[in-house]
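Worked problem 6 (solution included).
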Amino acid sequence: MRYIILLIVFITSVSFKADYSVKIAKMKYAGGGDWYSNRTALPNLATFCNKNLGTSINPEDEVVEPASAEIYNYPYVYLTGHGNIVFSTEDAENLRKYLLAGGFLHIDDNYGLDKFVRPEMKKVFPELDFIELPFTHEIYNQKYSFPNGLPKIHEHDGKPPQGFGLIYKGRLVCFYDYECDLGNGWEDPGIYDDSEETRLNALKMGANIIQYAFGH
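Solution. The predicted structure is:
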């Protein structure tokens, strides 16, 4: 009887093992900035998307460097932090190739990133400038509707949240949320003093970004 029970437990554990076929990753960059911020953000976003979008995203917190060949394994790469960021020539060239090949970069200003990340992205796309996306853009109108654009997650300078993009030949290859702090809203409850409504709005907007990235 004991062996039958053990066999049932084994079969059950195998049968219900999650089949995660897609991976997303956080970017590890040079320059001394805290690229590792928001440790629980991507796992929580992946879990939310799997439940509400029907995706199969591995919730493990994967890390990738901009010059790595591994970056091509991720349809969505997340970049965050507060401080300095530096892209080498190799970083910029590989990141450009990744984005032109269909990859998607989401930059999440965790406060203080703006003055560093803009010139570094110029190394990647010298010919492009960040433009503010209209509220009618598809990224705000995926499974969840955000008629007023990005939700405000954390208050920093009293400025409204803004969503910027780099658009190459009609395709949004990089989305940049500024004065919003989406990733903090994805973190585990209790890490920040966010209401459940605020966290849910952050996760819904994150799901929209994932859905857009996967569909374009």
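Discussion: The chain has one domain: 23-215.
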